[in-house]
Amino acid sequence: MPLTIVRQDITQMRVDAIVNAANTDLAMGGGVCGAIFQAAGPAQMQAACDRIAPIQTGEAVLTPGFRLPAKFVIHAVGPVYRPGHAEQSRRLLYSAYTKSLQLALAKRCRSIAFPLISSGIYGYPKDEALQVATAAIQDFLAEHDMEVYLVVFDRVAFAVSEKLLGAVENYLDDHYVDIHRIQRRELLDVEYRAMRSALEPPCAAPAPMAAIPSLDERMEQLDEPFNATLLRLIDAKGKTDAQVYRRANIDRKLFSKIRTGKGYTPGKRTILALAIALELTLEETDDLLKRAGYALSHSRKFDVIVEFFIVSGIYDVFEINQVLFQYDQPLLGAS
């Protein structure tokens, strides 16, 4: 999947490159920087950094990963946050991400893992740092294919807009049915028919039964298959394949597999990501899910959160995934 938020120790990530939240002198520091140096081998890493230091804020340089699982470490310098110069801070932080991604691309990396740069002792507000990180990564992925991970060590280091979370929480309060609550059990159709039959007077003679369709006749009446519906919707919405799979946060190979059909049906999370990319209404989303054998349920928190974004007309899969991550739910995109 192109962009995934994970809770993990970045030094344990098995990717082509990890990014170090560095200082301009490329000296071993604390936090993420210290952990990366220690895992790589502090003497070797410091010697490699000394040969290319110093660098400017917003820049990035590359060293070997040494003892790390990652082949490379990209050292990116984010800004110290200055409230009076918010736009300059944003520009420099955006540059740190972009320069790192460009270095990874030049080294033909297929995967890269970032910490949330500048959100620690450099004082960048965590929700704003997350917005800048997502924007930079999203802009890069609009033109290039790469697996990008945003790594947080714990949920405290990750912050989503309180206003958005409040709106989601209100929607959950109104729509989420906790499966542990005692719910009134609805009568099954068969029970209803039996009850109605017992209350009605007996009929003189039963009506003749309609002929039961054969299996062949039923097969001829099947609804339009999922992949045919998807392609029709792409054309109807005036979008290209590339626009759809990138906005859905899935890679080109998976989308090609979905497009050709041949008996393959993607998972529910992937279908919902495609619905978001196509900006489908809730009714259209329900129909697309149904054609693949799925449905939204108010007994699943994941489903209700995604439904909130659809009915609110918010079709940014990265923003949705931030909220899903905050609620410890699986993310949209490739399963």
UniProtKB/TrEMBL annotation:
Source organism per UniProt: Candidatus Avichristensenella intestinipullorum
Protein name: Macro domain-containing protein
Matches recorded under SUPFAM superfamilies: lambda repressor-like DNA-binding domains, Macro domain-like
GO molecular function, one term: DNA binding
Superkingdom: Bacteria
Domain Macro positions: 1-169
